[in-house]
Amino acid sequence: MKLKHAGVIAAAATAVMIAGPAFAAGPPYTVSVGGSSAAATHPISATSTGTVKFSAKNSSGTIINMNCTSVTGSGHVYSGTGINPVADITSTTWSGCTIPGGSATVTQSGTWNVTGTGSNATSGSETIAGYIGNVVAGVKTTANPAICNFTVKGLGGTVNGKATGSFVEGSSPQQLVISETGYTGNLELTGVSGCLGQLQSGNKANFEATLNITSPDGAINLS
Fold first, then answer.
1. For residue 109, which phi and psi values (nearest 5 degrees)?
2. What are phi and psi of 196, to 5 degrees?
3. Which has the least CB within 10 A, 8, 123, 186, 210?
4. Res 29 pLDDT > 50
5. Burial environment of residue 208 by CB neighbours within 10 A (0 to 12, 13 to 18, 19 or more)
6. pLDDT band at 176 (very low <50, low <70, confident <90, very high)
7. Cα angle: 109, vertex 111, 117; to 5 degrees
8. Which residues contact 96 (CB under 8 A, 6 or more apart)?
């Protein structure tokens, strides 16, 4: 995914992936895929490399780590002019996740979007800032959902959860680095039930992952 725009997904994680002006969308882009900027929809896939880190700070200030071994995803990137958001994530599959009470199942809700915030650039090797928006996911213990379950949303339980990040255009494969850190409230837990008393609704969450991004239609460029 060649995003020729300085600063697209550094917000993808602060924004799967912040609040206020920092997360206003950037200018619209001209997006080309495989060298063509003709208006079209192209498939993309994402595969994590390394541990997928998810944690929450509970009401007593304790950090509860709830990591996954891997995540894969699929979606689309949109070529054409005047584009932003530039892509979406329609489905994800999570493996090896644990939460208080045992192994967990994570289910994406709705379509997440990838929105650029940086200014246009042309070298083809930038790190692009932006965010993943509309983040909503349900999490529950796999063996018995009554042991622990909650939903990850945005500030105040709204559906506009965001995760800041960065898109590394020059890497091979290209990568989306999600880096929602600092327990800012861009992501938080709602509807918490059980969880051995370790989690509460309103707990702020962090999310960190590195995803290899590929499209069978070719390199993705923003300008």
1. -115, 130
2. 60, 20
3. 123
4. yes
5. buried
6. confident
7. 125
8. 67, 68, 69, 70
